[in-house]
């Protein structure tokens, strides 16, 4: 379980194809604190640390993960948003994030609004996933508040701190991003679908 508050960014150091899977070797500021079998969200996708070697660690993405996320677009040098799993002893600053990416979206536009940034993202139509204004959405693992919500599209406003501290600053029109929709909204949509309301 995560909160969507990014701890740091990491860098992809090496990529190895392993049959249908891909092994990613990354470096990050807290590598020395990681442990084997630890869960770590990478752009919002929960992956297990399988190896640690000095200042780098390895995670493996299986084919299903590669099909649902933007991990297949990573290159050596890609900057990745990182968050370790939640400890139930502090404040929940973001929202409840599972680290299970629902689908990917595409950046439609990025507007510089004199210090803040307004990003609009499109996603493939689905009755199971929706957004509401002032609701929560996770983009590349970052907990954000929906500013505007439309059919298969939403916009978020990014404050300067989030822009600089995460990999948001590298986004450009057409980029593919990982999306995890709010868990409460997903349950409501599922119940309504079961009752043939939607």
From TrEMBL:
Pathway: Cofactor biosynthesis; riboflavin biosynthesis; riboflavin from 2-hydroxy-3-oxobutyl phosphate and 5-amino-6-(D-ribitylamino)uracil: step 2/2. Residues 1-95, 96-192 form the Lumazine-binding domain. It is an enzyme of class 2 (transferase). It comes from the Bacteria. Keywords: Repeat, Riboflavin biosynthesis, Transferase. Lumazine-binding repeats lie at residues 1-95, 96-192. The keyword Transferase applies. One of its GO terms (molecular function) is riboflavin synthase activity. It catalyses: 2 6,7-dimethyl-8-(1-D-ribityl)lumazine + H(+) = 5-amino-6-(D-ribitylamino)uracil + riboflavin. Its EC number is 2.5.1.9. The keyword Transferase applies. GO terms for biological process: riboflavin biosynthetic process. NCBIfam families: PRK09289.1 (NF006767), ribE (TIGR00187). Catalyzes the dismutation of two molecules of 6,7-dimethyl-8-ribityllumazine, resulting in the formation of riboflavin and 5-amino-6-(D-ribitylamino)uracil. PANTHER family: RIBOFLAVIN SYNTHASE (PTHR21098:SF12), RIBOFLAVIN SYNTHASE ALPHA CHAIN (PTHR21098). This is Riboflavin synthase. It comes from Epilithonimonas hungarica. The lineage of its organism: Bacteria, Pseudomonadati, Bacteroidota, Flavobacteriia, Flavobacteriales.
